[in-house]
UniProtKB/TrEMBL annotation:
It catalyses: a myo-inositol phosphate + H2O = myo-inositol + phosphate. PANTHER family: INOSITOL MONOPHOSPHATASE (PTHR20854), INOSITOL-1-MONOPHOSPHATASE-RELATED (PTHR20854:SF4). Mg(2+) binds at E68, D85, I87, D88, D213. GO terms for molecular function: inositol monophosphate 1-phosphatase activity; metal ion binding. Keywords: Hydrolase, Magnesium, Metal-binding. Belongs to the inositol monophosphatase superfamily. The keyword Iron does not apply. The keyword Magnesium applies. This is Inositol-1-monophosphatase.
Length: 260
């Protein structure tokens, strides 16, 4: 069996089961708690993260695990570590907005090697393994062919708890809106990236994200033929302060616009 294919298949199975837990939680109710200045967490987030951690510990006992709710060892070493977000888009989830997902990634040698995002509302499984391409429900997935920023639809997000980033990105939002067909704000960075990989969006940028937010999604974009850097066109591994992910063709124009 190909290298890391077992890990990919395990991550897919875990993500699907976690997605069922998301839907069960929506149906049967949950508690919402404040986390930080402007974020929330639900009992379902915590339950799902415990489930994912338990599954990964059983299957890959020597691997490190870094999750959104319970943390873990954050050392950026050359060893294998999993990045998990039990519900990316928790605020949407808590309000009943069907734009949230499960995100699981495996990083080795400083880069994501396996990335899986599952949207239980639409039963869509986005999956990638480095060097093996990206798929949506088992079918090859490619970024959009849009060649110019004028024809592009972009997506972004905001972090209200970080005022400098918020102010800067509001300015970016206005600038990009003027140059493109439009900018969307879905409320889930993982889905934003999955949609760029699937050609549903032409590009995505955001500031202040965590590695579990983007670890799976940025690999999807790369393996679907896109390009991912930070806003300054530097390498992106999931731990940088900003991310820009596009269909590659509009990348340079967006860097120039966002750097203005």
């Amino acid at each position: 069996m190909s290298e890391l294919l077992i890990e990919q298949r395990c991550a897919e199975a875990i993500a699907r089961r976690a997605g069922k837990m998301m839907l069960h939680g929506r149906k049967h109710g949950f508690s919402v708690h404040t986390k930080g200045e402007s974020d929330v967490v639900t009992d379902v987030d915590r339950e799902i993260e415990r489930f994912i951690i338990g599954q990964l510990e059983q299957m890959f006992p020597d691997d490190d695990i870094l999750g959104e709710e319970f943390g873990g060892r954050e050392a950026q070493s050359e060893e294998r570590h999993w990045l998990i977000d039990p519900i990316d888009g928790t605020l949407n989830y808590s309000y009943g907005v069907p734009l949230s997902c499960v995100s699981i990634a495996l990083q080795c040698e400083g880069k994501s090697q396996v990335g899986v995002i599952y949207d239980p509302y639409r039963d869509e499984l986005f999956s990638a393994r480095r060097g093996a391409g990206a798929t949506l429900d088992g079918e090859e997935m490619r970024v959009s062919p849009k060649a110019t920023l004028d024809d592009a639809v972009l997506v972004t997000g905001f972090r209200p708890s970080t005022p400098p980033d918020l102010t800067d990105n509001l300015q970016n939002f206005v600038a990009v809106t003027k140059r493109s067909r439009g900018v969307r704000r879905l409320g889930s960075a993982a889905l934003d990236l999955a949609y760029v990989a699937a050609g549903r969006m032409d590009g995505f940028w955001e500031f202040g994200l965590n590695p579990w937010d983007t670890g799976a999604g940025y690999l999807l974009v790369e393996e679907a033929g896109g390009r991912v850097t930070d806003i300054q066109d530097g390498p992106y591994t999931g731990f940088e302060a900003s991310i820009l992910a596009t269909n590659a063709q509009i990348h340079d124009d967006l860097i120039e616009l966002l750097s203005a």
